[in-house]
Specification:
single chain, TIM Barrel, Recoverin, domain 1, 3-stranded antiparallel sheet, 18 helices, 18 strands, globular, binds 3-methyl-2-oxobutanoic acid, binds zinc ion
């Protein structure tokens, strides 16, 4: 069995997904969970891109123990200096430098000849080596680079000290057979390749990022770069959970293992979805809501007779309890804590106190409380954003022949603010009232509502995306009352918008990525 290194880039490439912008405390929360999941490397950000990114990388480097912490840099001294400064507190650090090598990028983007690209790549690796022994080099758009030139670049950067050479399929253009052959070519044709680890980084424009990554593993890649839920630039990156479960389900074919604790997968997926506001599609492999649901009678019959007839992995393998009906209103604190541990949550005493109060309130309204409900309750206790405004009271009137009206009370720094407004419906009326109270009127880019579990008394989860002065943020709220959940989600996003440092960070990053 070969041990494959798992390089998670949820906090860097994943965060480049439109609207997925995360605040530094949210990034830290995800990084801690990635460490529990057992990833080998966390790419924590792109420090030159914004002060917020630099701060987030630094905090993660200071706080998160276990994985190597990586930061991205273009092949420029200012980028490498910024990445090195942010990584300084990390026990294990990796500088990840990149430069495009394909003819199309050389001609139109960089306006540089092959020899200049070669020279700058070697220079960047040597410069990065001054800060860390662990240096990764990525020839951006490698899959569209002339193979002979790619081999020369790789040989030169390894000679300069690169310890990992990463082969990005930047635009998701590669086909698994062909990508596998490219990796095989690198193994056979780069003379000093045994001195570096081969990594791959695949995008999902044609839905082939996971098959391409797996083909690369089969042909000699020792590291894969991936993200939770496959989020990332455009159609996203290769999904960590899909790669991991494929290796776990088919060791006969891949003969490869990883250090991932698969029972942490579901929780990590939920956390990333909650904090980015990117809802996981129900039919998504491994972590989608339908991934372990059997609807057809023939399948249900087969499952009852012998589970493996229709199930190649078990829900508990990814941390979803087999018996998902867990608690009710008579359950005590002990059972609550025990169940939280079973699904992977460990809270501080204060967080526990608040979460238990919310559980009791929910159990009063809802007969059965499922694992998903518990996860939703606990996630509301996460220190996601500074809570400038708190929702104290919401009342709406609506119905046929009624003008929908909302009355809302918020608290801000101990002071109460109250107002009312009419709207097209009760949700619109709530949002107009909150706008009046906070003095900002963001654009509602997206609104989604879904039931966390089944049943008429299910907990409703609302995810909104708001845009204001170029910044886009997500917010989430849960309640058995969908109007209250809608107000909470909106306020959660507004709280992120009013934190001006988050907004400044966002604008600076956009500028760096799209000058
Ligand atoms: O997709 C890409 O090419 C990248 C590199 C910076 C590794 O994200
Ligand atoms: Zn990428």
């Amino acid at each position: 069995m070969r041990r494959i290194t798992i390089f998670d880039t949820t906090l860097r490439d994943g965060e480049q997904c439109p609207g997925a912008s995360l605040t530094p405390p949210e990034k830290l929360e995800i990084a801690k969970q990635l460490a529990r999941l057992g990833v080998d490397v966390i790419e924590a950000g792109f420090p030159i891109a914004s002060p917020g990114d630099a701060q987030a990388v630094k905090t993660i480097a200071q706080t998160v123990k276990g994985p190597t912490i990586a930061a991205l840099a273009r092949s420029l001294s200012a980028d490498i200096d910024a990445a090195a400064a942010a990584l300084a507190p990390a026990k294990k650090k990796r500088l990840h430098v990149f430069l495009a090598t394909s003819p199309i990028h050389r001609k139109y983007k960089l306006r540089k000849a092959q020899r200049e690209i070669l020279r700058q790549s070697v220079w960047a690796v040597k410069y990065a080596k001054r800060y860390s022994d662990d240096v990764e080099f990525s020839p951006e758009d490698a899959s569209r680079t002339e193979p002979e030139f790619l081999y020369r670049v790789l040989e030169a950067v390894i000679e300069a000290g690169a310890t990992t050479v990463n082969i990005p399929d930047t635009v998701g253009f590669a086909i698994p057979d062909e990508f596998g052959r490219l990796i095989k070519g690198i193994v056979e044709r780069v003379p000093n390749i045994e001195r570096a680890r081969i990594s791959v980084h695949c995008h999902n424009d044609l839905g082939l990022s996971v098959p391409n990554s797996l083909a690369a593993i089969k042909n000699g890649a020792g590291q894969v770069e991936c993200t939770i839920n496959g989020i990332g630039e455009r159609a996203g990156n290769a999904s960590l959970e899909e790669i991991i479960m494929t290796l776990k389900v088919r060791p006969d074919f891949y003969q490869a293992t990883t250090g991932i604790d698969t029972t942490q997968i579901y929780k990590t997926s939920r956390l990333v979805s909650t904090l980015t506001g990117l809802v996981v599609q129900p039919n998504k492999a491994v972590v989608g809501g339908n991934a372990f649901r059997h609807e057809s009678g023939i399948h249900q019959d087969g499952i009852l007779k012998f589970r493996q007839t229709y199930e190649i992995m078990r829900p508990e393998d990814i941390g979803l309890g087999e018996s998902r009906l867990v608690l009710g209103k008579h359950s005590g604190r002990h059972a609550f804590v025990k169940r939280l541990h079973a699904i992977g949550f460990r809270l501080t005493a204060k967080e526990l106190e608040q979460a238990f109060g919310r559980f009791k309130a929910l159990a009063d309204k809802k007969k059965e409380v499922f694992d998903e409900d518990l996860a939703a309750i606990v996630e509301e206790e996460l220190p996601a954003a500074q809570e400038t405004y708190k929702l104290a009271y919401v009342h709406t009137t609506s119905g046929s022949d009624t003008v929908p009206t909302a009355t809302i009370r918020l608290t801000k720094e101990g002071k109460e603010l109250q107002d009312a407004a009419c709207g097209d419906g009760p949700v619109d009326a709530c949002y107009k009232t909150i706008d009046r109270l906070t003095g900002i009127s963001p654009e509602l880019v997206d609104y989604s509502l879904h039931a966390v579990t089944k049943g008429k008394d299910a907990l409703g989860e609302v995810v909104v995306r708001l845009r204001h002065h170029g910044a886009e943020v997500a917010g989430r709220g849960t309640s058995t009352d969908i109007i209250e959940a809608s107000a909470k989600a909106y306020l959660n996003a507004v709280n992120k918008l009013v934190s001006s440092s988050a907004r400044r960070s966002y604008l600076k990053r956009r500028e760096t990525l799209h000058p």
